[in-house]
Every structure is written in C-alpha cells, then in structure tokens.
Amino acid sequence: MTLTAPRRIHRLERLTYFSRNLMPGPRWRVAEQLRALLDGARIRNAHLGITGALMLHDGCFAQVLEGDREELSSLFASISADPRHCNVTLLQRGPITERAFMDFGMRHIETDETMPPPGVIAVENLFLRLATEAHGGG
Fold first, then answer.
1. What residues contact residue 64 under an 8 Å CB cut-off, 6+ apart?
2. What's the fold here for domain 12-134?
C-alpha cells in the first residue's frame, strides 16, 4: 500500500479592502512608487495564484484580491503591515465560485473624470469602479 500526502483543497475566496495612502511626495513620485508596488505585486501574485485589481484615488487605496483562502490570509497579513498605507479596513471576504480578474495578477485601475472630485470620495464609488472593471467595463 502506497501512502500519498493529502491533497490540498483550494478554497477560492475574494477579499476587498480600503486603506489610506502614506506614500510621500508629489503626484509623479507617488506614481513611481505605485508602479514599483504593482511590479512587485504582479510577481508575488503570479507565484501565489492571486489575482485582483488595485486603484488609488484621492489618497485612498481600494483593492480586490482573489485566490486560495490560506494564501489570501497570509497576503492580507503582509498587506496590513505595509507602511505605505494605514487604516486598512477589510470590507468583504468570502467564498467565490469563479474569479472576476482571471487574467490579471494585479490589474491597476486608473481613475479618471468619471470619479468624483478629490475630497468627495466614497468607498462605494471606488468599489463600483472595481466591480465595473471586473465585469468588462471601462
């Protein structure tokens, strides 16, 4: 009789959170830091099987992450401790049957004139935009 290691059951989940940006500097410097953050996230997420999207607007991050439950737990702990942001607030986490961001290790969603002006931001607006992008909107 041959014993095999128990097969790991992948439980697919989606996690969404909101936080306040702490990356210093003028807009161009923050954009450079954001590019570096995204480059690192894309490499890490490909290795972990994580997909999702990140948006920065009016000093706030909104992010959706999808992947294995255990990998998400570890990643979210790391994200929560990252000094580039504060007030990390988990808004939603739960099981899903399929990914919304199948082709994106970490999609960057740019904000534009369809977003409310600075100072009038609402969490709902950020996640409405992320949801629109997840389902093929632009």
1. 14, 15, 16, 52, 53, 100, 101, 127, 130, 134
2. Alpha-Beta Plaits (3.30.70)
